[in-house]
Amino acid sequence: MSSTTIAHSETIICKPFSKLTLDELYKILRLRSEVFIVEQDCVYQDVDDNDQDALHLWMTIDGKWVAYARVLPAGTYFDEIGIGRVITLERGKGYGLQIFREAMNVAEKYFKAESILIRAQLQAEHFYEKAGFFRVGEPFMYEGLMHVDMRWKKA
Predict the structure, then answer these.
(1) Is residue 1 part of a domain?
(2) Has residue 144 been placed in a domain?
(3) Which of 47, 83, 130, 146 supports an S-S bond with 122, CB 3.0-4.6 Å?
(4) Domain around 53
(5) Which of 108, 31, 118 is nearest to 78 (CA)?
(6) 73 φ/ψ angles, rounded to the nearest 5 degrees
(7) CA atoms within a 13 Å half-sphere pointing along the CA-CB vector of 129
């Protein structure tokens, strides 16, 4: 009996909206629809006019998309820099936290973030705490799901 370890090709790509190909944009919108609208049964307007100003990140393993997030400059969704639409397709493998931490790095590098604000689904609060975020305010209903605003501050 033998076993072979196959090295996987992991890639994280970051692009502004203007540099996305039509295929990349289609995949992004399809992923977001699959997770936020179909899987979570939450009917809302995902295409929100903030994508054009955002930096879009996605992670692939051997060419297969496994995670996505977008980084929003101050003055788009929030008055300050934000991260949103965080998706992982293969849960339990660490891809979600990996793409989220990379989104934080992008926010620092390109937008000089000293602080980042997110609007997290309440059930994901502990996930974001792992990345150093803390709750600001009380939970509230947003787009049919309970959310909480959370913030990270640079040390």
Answers:
(1) no
(2) no
(3) 146
(4) 10-113
(5) 118
(6) -70, 160
(7) 9
Block residue for tokens 């076993």: 3
CATH classification at residue 59? 3.40.630.30
Q: What is the pLDDT of residues 6-58, one digit of tens each?
A: 457 889 999 999 999 999 999 988 888 776 655 555 655 556 788 889 999 99
How many domains, the chain? 1
Q: How far apart are CA 22 and CA 118, in angstroms?
A: 27
Whose CA is closest to 72, among 50, 57, 87, 101?
Answer: 50
**Cβ neighbours of residue 152 under 8 Å, at least 6 residues apart?**
104, 115, 116, 118, 131, 132, 133, 134
Does residue 42 lie within any of the structural domains?
yes
Instruction: Identify the DSSP state of 124.
Output: G
Q: Which two tokens stand for residue 122?
A: 């309440």
106 domain-assigned? yes
